[in-house]
Design goal:
alpha/beta, 5 strands, 5-stranded parallel β-sheet
Length: 131
């Protein structure tokens, strides 16, 4: 599905597909389980997916980091330091939450760039779909 955490892409590779070494890298900083599997499956069509649970992996090369509430609750200071080291480059962090009113996600905006509530109920477009 993806590559191991911390692997460095070969920037000379010409292919820009998700399986290539130059595809944008998304670090899933989530506990193992069905949510992580679904997010990885959905994003792997377009991005190179890496998974991690060790805070040291935030120092690896990635283009976006997606966190679950558990990781966010224990890593806010680490996220802030990682963002400072990346400055002036924008390094986005996205928080996935089950319930926007949960204690671990109170006032996340100082630490992350977007908050997405799960499950995501997307509207399908195409034949047979309601608009």
């Amino acid at each position: 599905m993806g590559t191991g955490p911390g692997e460095i892409a070969d920037e000379s590779a010409p292919d820009e597909t998700a399986g290539s070494e130059t595809a944008d890298r998304v670090l899933l900083f989530m506990r193992a389980g069905r949510d992580r599997e679904l997010v990885a499956e959905t994003l792997s069509e377009r991005y190179r997916i890496e998974t991690a649970t060790d805070p040291d992996e935030l120092d690896s090369g990635f283009d976006c980091c997606v966190l679950d509430a558990h990781a966010f609750g224990r890593l806010t200071e680490v996220l802030d330091r990682r963002r400072e080291r990346a400055d002036p480059v924008f390094l986005p962090f996205v928080l996935l939450v089950q319930d926007s009113g949960s204690e671990t996600t109170r006032d996340p905006w100082e630490h992350v760039d977007d908050v997405v509530e799960l499950p995501v109920r997307g509207r399908r477009c195409g034949p047979g779909s309601a608009t």
